Amino acid sequence: MIIIIKLLLAHFLGDFALQPRSWVEQKEKRKAKSGKLYLHILIHGCIMMILLWDWSVWPMVLTLMLIHGVIDVLKLYAQKEKTKTSWFIIDQVLHLTSILAVWYIIYNPAIDLIYLFNKPMLWIYILAILIVSMVTGIMMQVFMHKWATHLEEGNGNSLKNAGKYIGILERLLVLTFIVIGRWEGVGFLLAAKSVFRFGDLKESKDRKLTEYILIGTLISFGIAIAVGLVLVQLQNIL
């Protein structure tokens, strides 16, 4: 169990936390000719080796690196501007499926829930925190791309990356409240955000902006709540 958790952690670190937006843009522009593509694949391999800390697993790591590269190249050549959201989902499903498949083929674990969940929660918590902070933020950018293009550009008064960090903090707080069993904290946080946003929405008088903020808030809270519930269930099993 600990190996698959570390492999998933390595994937999310490499694909989200350690991949700048500039790399993504260069890959989309130059595709297989982009040096960032191969650097990205190499980083994935390095993260896996560091987390597993076992030289004997290099064949598995090399296999996952090659598969990751093939999937990324497929996405770069297949996706269009209108299909970026769909290909983002396909890309992540293929990555996660390949990781699970390679892990299963090499280790051939027994399909036993007791076996799968009898390890310490440390790596599961790390994975959950990474998902609700970095991964969800990037996923929301991709999912809400179409709506964002319909919004008029602001007057530049907003702080740079303020929305990104607000989202990370609110999801971490939601996750914390759920894990410690304080659901009222989630309600308080949602109410507080609504109060602060009310003035902006009232002044804007823009229905699209209101809908955009509401959709973003519900997606952000929904993912954080789902991850929190999974953690609680894992705690009960363990």
TrEMBL record:
One Pfam short name: DUF3307
Keyword annotations: Membrane, Transmembrane, Transmembrane helix
InterPro entries: Phage_phiKZ_Orf197
TM stretches of this protein: 37-53, 85-107, 122-143, 172-192, 212-232
Keyword Membrane assigned: yes
Protein name: DUF3307 domain-containing protein
Organism for this UniProt entry: Belliella kenyensis
Phylogenetic placement of the source organism: Bacteria, Pseudomonadati, Bacteroidota, Cytophagia, Cytophagales
